[in-house]
Fold:
Amino acid sequence: MKLNDRQKQILELTEKKQRVTVAHLAKGLFVSEMTVRRDLAKMEQGGYLKRFHGGAVANSDYLEYPIETRMHINEKEKRDLARRAQKYIQNGQIIFLPGSSTCAFLIPLLKNYDGITVITNSVQFMVMLSKMRIRCILSGGEYLEGDKVLVGRDAERVLRAYNADILFLACSGISEDNMVTVDDEAKAEIGRIGFQNSKKRIILADRSKLGITYPHNICHTSEADDLIVI
Structure:
């Protein structure tokens, strides 16, 4: 199910508040309660949330959503992050781009440049890049359906063989002591490889990630060339 703009707003509000009422949504979105109820019914069928009498609750932890759903959450901030990061993109670059819902918004911007090569573990990114006829080097490895990425020793072996001009790195959270963290060790290792093998490293995060700590560290923000936060 593809969400319309109003349903994207409902999803964002549900994720932020964890529990919302039909009346609150209707008032905030300037639509009727009947319209909200129809949206909630469709979104529950699509697995985006769970309804209760008079409202809805978040379906699960944000990171458990498939990447297509996560791209709708804080979508404006992610688009703004991509536009801010665009100043670092140049013709002829080799770009290391680990799969994430934030970095996905960088992909469409690459069509404005010549001679770009993207190194990634994201099958989703590979498909998007192929449609734009942009050169892509895709790792092998174990496929994670929810994230549409490849991880594990085979992925790490392939990615270690390449050097990049620049890394764009998103994360699950940035801790109080400014460690860039993610929920999964395999994904953390992909980020570390990109960090080690790239001349310039740019971290992207929306403000909902600040002060959040997940089990696996990638790097400290001070090690990056820039930290872009919106």
